[in-house]
Amino acid sequence: MHLLIEAEIEDAFFACPLCGSARPPYRFGSRSRTLFDLPIRMKPVQILAHRRRYRCRECSGTFLDQLPGIHASHDATERLIRYIEAHALQLTGTFTSLAKTLGMSEKVVRMIFHAEVSRLEQEYVIQTPRYLGIDEIYVEDHIYCVLADIEHHCIIDLLPKRDMDSVKKWLSQLQNKDRVECVTENEPESPRDVSGG
What we know:
Layout: E1 3-8, E2 26-40, E3 43-55, E4 62-64, H1 78-90, H2 95-102, H3 106-123, E5 131-139, E6 142-149, E7 154-159, H4 164-173, E8 182-185, H5 189-195
Parallel strand pairs: 1-3, 5-8
Antiparallel strand pairs: 2-3, 3-4, 5-6, 6-7
Helix pairs in contact: 1-3, 2-3, 4-5
């Protein structure tokens, strides 16, 4: 069960977004759109937004009321998208459980999560460590290469493979390589081979 809230724009937007005309447009019908919003008292919320449709007196183009606070790519409020991004990144539950809490499909929650991860990956700049640690982690029978900043006790990258070529490629793309003073891992012969020393 979910809560359904009906909403309508009170202050109509009278400048044509197509040609910029300030002449009041003709009313040209209406459309409704169902949007998802943050849960209220643990119940999923849907907003049934009634939008007026207009026809411009100058260019004859048609347009709808603008809905403030609605995400451009999803039938959801911007605050719900931010909520999904934050909760999905915390990894405190599954996409399915988050989708159920919000009353929306798991596919949409997963898409929002992946879009946020892509955005964060583009913004992420690796700070070259002085002491680079190379290790591995097993996840569902797959070995990933973990690259860590030993001095600051943090993981700086995760590679899909833990082979010499992957690590060499990663090191070749690293900015300020000369800042690395020491490379360490659990196999003593590999750091020398990788770093060229």
